[in-house]
Amino acid sequence: MAGFKALKGQGHFPTLFMAFLYFDMSFMVWTMLGPLSTEIGEALAAAGHVMTAGEKATLLSLPILSGAILRIVLGFGVDKLGAKTTALIAQSIVIASLLTAFMLGAEITYNQLLIVALGLGFAGASFAVALPQAGQWYPPKLQGVVLGIAGAGNIGVVIDFLFAPKIAEKWGWEYVFGVGAFMAIIVFVAYLFLAKNAPESVYKARPKKVSDYLKLLRDKDTWWFNLFYAISFGGFVGFAGYMKVFLMNTYQADMSAFGLDVFNEPNVKVIAGYFGALTIFAGAVLRPVGGSVADKIGGVKALYFFYGAVAVLVTILAVANLPFFVAIAVLFMIMASLGMANGAVFQLVPQRFGKDIGIMTGIVGCAGGLGGTALIKTLGWSKGAFDGYMVGFLIFAAVVLVAIAGLSFVKTRWRTTWGVNSGGII
Question: What is the pTM of this model?
Answer without folding.
Answer: 0.89
